[in-house]
Amino acid sequence: MLVGKRILLIIGGGIAAYKALDLIRRLKERGATVTPVLTRSAEEFVTPLSVGALAGAKAYRHLFDLTDEAEMGHIELSRAADLLVVAPATADLMAKMAGGHADDLASTLLLATDKRVLLAPSMNVRMWQHPATQRNIKTLQGDGLLFAGPNEGDMACGEYGPGRMAEPMEIVAAVEAALAGGPMKGRHVIVTSGPTHEPIDPVRFIANRSSGAQGTALAVALRDLGARVSFITGPASVPPPSGVTVVRVETADEMRSAVEASLPADAAVFAAAVADWRVANASLSKMKKDGSGKAPILEFAENPDILARVSGMKAGRPELVVGFAAETDDVVAHATAKRVRKGCDWIVANDVRPATGIMGGAENAVTLITAVGAETWPRLPKEEVARRLATRIANALSGA
Ligand code: C5P
Description:
Blueprint: E1 6-11, H1 17-29, E2 33-38, H2 48-55, H3 66-71, H4 74-79, E3 83-89, H5 91-99, H6 105-112, E4 116-121, H7 125-129, H8 131-142, E5 146-147, E6 151-154, E7 160-164, H9 168-178, E8 188-193, E9 198-199, E10 205-206, H10 213-224, E11 228-233, E12 245-248, H11 252-262, E13 267-270, E14 277-279, E15 300-302, H12 306-311, E16 320-327, H13 331-342, E17 346-351, E18 363-364, E19 366-370, E20 373-376, E21 380-381, H14 382-398
Parallel strand pairs: 1-2, 1-3, 3-4, 4-5, 8-11, 8-13, 11-12, 13-16, 16-17
Antiparallel strand pairs: 6-7, 9-10, 14-15, 17-19, 18-21, 19-20
Cytidine-5'-monophosphate (C5P) binds near residues 192, 272 and 303.
């Protein structure tokens, strides 16, 4: 529920603006107060009259006249809310935000606010995939903005791919998560997830079978307890959750620097299946058969152990550091030794022999290893493992 929560909803100029009308209704149904703002181009898609009528409040427009300023100054308007939501967040609006522009009411409010901002991007697939947009998204993620979507699917322009605005109820879930007052409120947690890809040459890489399902479920569970989650993911096959800060990486080294850039944190959970080795003699151009029948020899170098590095930090170490241990034999013995060797607080151990179907599957059977011993949980859906673990993390941080 969102009773008493104040949402400043900025509607950008895209075809998905029609979904913003439904979003207003859904937010209001849950007890939120919605103050709408339309950009100039938003008015080409929806009218201030319909937006204002649904919100039951004045719809502020790109033209911020002196009457408005007398009613409520733009600084006050940007700060009177509990959360700013931009839906649809167009490529242009995100570019402005990434560049710090303030040339209309929407961009000025976004620059002037001291509150969290949730973006629901919406654009054509090519615009979404354009390096400029991807660069802007990285910048905005680095600035701590939250994202809901976009989804993949059919688009109004007739193309298919990522760029569809998240559905109103998905945005509502992300709003609720952003405003959640759970036991992890005010806490920052880093979660790594997915595999890493270590290049052999520009087209080939070494990977593993991790889907990212357990890490994603954990990020969702921590988010739902009110934590601010930095979700650092390798190329996973499951999409990252909304309502968390997503940082996409490819290699172990990129993951290490993304983790370091996300510190400080109250807790860090390393669920990623990081490659232990990278190819030291990776080729800058595509390797080719030379006809001699001689196979290339790959040389390996050890990757940074992110878990061990963070666990061993002298200053600024997260209060709780949790590692995962995927083992194929003597699970508890190996994982117990690993906890000590890596210097982390807990290890979540699981048996990833192919017969278990755990790696890439929907369920997980884990043993939680702490300083006081090993606790084996029954086989459960990964979401349930995540909820239990998130609750344990919340209890540990609160000293319970
Ligand atoms: O040593 P092993 O790979 O089995 O350890 C697994 C744990 O260590 C996982 O939590 C994984 O995310 C983390 N790890 C890491 N950096 C590496 C290798 C593993 O953070 N280079």
